[in-house]
Design goal:
four-stranded antiparallel beta sheet; about 575 residues; elongated; about 65% helix; Rossmann fold; alpha/beta; about 10% strand; ABC transporter transmembrane region fold; six-stranded mixed beta sheet
């Protein structure tokens, strides 16, 4: 703004030069005066261009500084948002950030900053003659009203266009991850039609916004051109009426100044898209940072020892109907270092949701998950992460080498890596790979089979000998050899004081458990020593069997299975 004051004042140099030439050179016929005036105005132009260059450099530097300052914050917020909402349009966040950064170094920002300096030219017109000043001011107000009305319409259309663009992009991204199913089962055409509907809605609203913008630019240009001519005509009238004593030179200068008044507004109109996109991007980023921010790092906490306590844990989310959909209710248990808990139950009983709460991914609606008495959700994950082992239901490997994935993309510790390989018996697996532990496994481990991905995910979970290990269906893709390696690993780490929480249905895993929890509809249906829990389930099933109707009645009534039978079947 400071440099802009001087550059806008220097824009008066052509008018001043014209006035001096008419006043001094024409009357005196002095060539030396003409040369000196010309050299002076050229010098002013050079200074003005240097100041403009400095302005642009400052703005670009500021945009770069803001990007460096906010990039990590935006990345973390986008990561948290994606964690809490699977369909969150994370790509839109980085597009918005890029749009905002580029708008800060665009001509649109300079035009916006130059608007206040238009009043320098209006003030000069008032000094030339008040009538010219008032006339230009009224025309400027009309121009601003037209721009604001058009921009309001443009913003409304662009907002809808961006909404449909995000939906189309998100829909395509979701479908593309399931391309094999879509292609093989003939689903491509109807899915394509759905995507085209969203894309066409985006193009329609974008076209509407472009049409309004074109009309706005045309009307602004018309007003600017007409304004210069009308000011010239009005000034001419004042001259011939002897109401402007400065003469004909001021008539020309007034016309030039009137055009300068409208110049920044014309620049804004030509850059409407940049400013509109930047405004929308700013709004979305501000909302993102307000709603998703990392827990601030407090005092460093001692490493967990494996002590886990879950206190009256409940978790619910608002549904589309406005009610809260309950996933978990009143879960509570306590584990000492080196103990193993197996969680079983039918599908949709809340087991996976519980595992995410246990590692501090979601904030409980009520209750707490505590490690060594400290709230797991509030614990800084950068500090806690190395002491936690976690294998989600979907393995979620990342593009990189096998060693990098196991080492959690930290610097690979060869000793820790070899320990994990020996525990899980991965030597043969690694020997089959072209580059051993340095083999690139592709996005999501696409170059590995399902069983190998499962083993690599397990290796990542136990890398570094974490004290709390939570595994969701760890043997889902394992063969008999892999399953035995898993059991051996759990037994070995259990002896070293590692606490395990396993979500599994397999009976041989229950054999090494200290506690067994059966879940049903988001609640603890049974909890205790494995033998006791299984015995109560067996007793319940026997009792239910005695009360079963006859075979004919079963065929007639088609009665569903007893709940105890369902739970026991799922547990076994």
């Amino acid at each position: 703004m400071f440099f802009g004051l001087f550059t806008n004042l220097m824009l008066l140099a052509p008018s001043w030069y014209m006035l001096e030439v008419y006043d001094r050179v024409i009357n005196s016929r002095n060539t030396t005066t003409l040369i000196m005036l010309t050299l002076l105005v050229v010098f002013i132009y050079l200074v003005m261009e240097c100041l403009e260059w400095v302005r642009k450099q400052q703005i670009e530097h500021a945009a770069l500084s803001i990007e460096q300052y906010l990039s990590q914050t935006v990345f973390n917020a986008a990561f948290l948002a994606k964690l809490k909402a699977f369909n969150f349009p994370i790509q839109q966040v980085f597009t918005d950030f890029k749009t905002l950064k580029e708008s800060l170094s665009s001509p649109a920002l300079i035009g916006l900053m130059d608007i206040p300096f238009s009043f320098i030219f209006i003030t000069t017109l008032f000094f030339i003659h008040p009538v010219l000043g008032f006339f230009t001011l009224i025309a400027l107000v009309v121009q601003i009203v037209i721009i604001l009305l058009n921009q309001s319409r443009i913003h409304s259309q662009m907002k809808q266009a961006n909404q449909f663009a995000v939906e189309a992009q998100s829909y395509f991204s979701t479908v593309s991850r399931k391309s094999e199913v879509v292609k093989s089962m003939g689903m491509l055409l109807p899915i394509q039609q759905r995507w085209l509907g969203k894309q066409q809605a985006f193009l329609y609203h974008q076209a509407q916004a472009s049409e309004v913008a074109s009309k706005s630019a045309a009307s602004s240009k018309f007003l600017q051109t007409m304004q210069s001519s009308l000011v010239l005509g009005l000034a001419c009238y004042l001259v011939i009426s002897n109401l402007m004593p400065q003469g004909g030179a001021m008539m020309i200068i007034a016309s030039i100044l009137a055009a300068r008044v409208f110049s920044p507004f014309m620049q804004l109109v030509s850059q409407w898209r940049v400013l509109a996109d930047a405004q929308d991007a700013y709004g979305r980023l501000a909302s993102l940072l307000a709603n998703y921010s990392e827990n601030k790092s407090g005092m460093a906490l001692p490493a967990p020892t494996g002590d886990v306590s879950v206190e009256a844990l409940s978790y619910a989310l608002p549904s589309d109907a406005g009610k809260r959909e309950v996933f978990l209710k009143n879960i509570q248990f306590k584990l000492n270092p080196g103990e193993v808990l197996v969680i079983a139950g039918p599908s949709a009983s809340g087991k996976t949701t519980l595992s995410k709460l246990l590692v501090g991914l979601h904030q409980p609606t009520n209750g707490k998950v505590r490690f060594n008495g400290v709230d797991a959700f509030a614990w800084n994950k950068n500090e806690l992460g190395e002491h936690i082992g976690y294998l989600p239901q979907s393995i979620e490997l990342m593009n990189g080498t096998l060693a990098e994935n196991i080492a959690r993309f930290n610097e690979v510790d060869t000793e820790k890596l070899n320990t994990v390989i020996e525990l899980l018996g991965l030597n043969d697996l690694i020997a089959d790979l072209p580059d051993g532990v340095n083999t690139q496994i592709g996005q999501d481990g696409e170059f590995l089979s399902g069983g190998r991905r499962q083993l690599i995910g397990l290796a990542r979970a136990i890398y570094g000998n974490p004290k709390i290990i939570i595994l969701d269906e760890p043997n889902a893709n394992l063969d008999e050899v892999g399953d035995k390696a898993l059991q051996s690993t759990i037994a070995s780490l259990k002896a070293q004081g590692c606490t395990f929480i396993l979500i599994s249905h397999l009976h041989n895993i229950v054999n090494i458990a200290d506690y067994l929890m059966i879940m049903m509809n988001g609640q603890m249906f049974r909890y205790g020593k494995p033998a006791e829990v299984m015995a109560t389930l067996q007793t319940s099933q026997n009792h239910a069997s005695q009360n079963q109707p006859s075979q004919n009645q079963v065929y007639q009534n088609q009665a569903p299975q007893n709940k105890n039978q369902q739970v026991k079947a799922a547990a076994i």
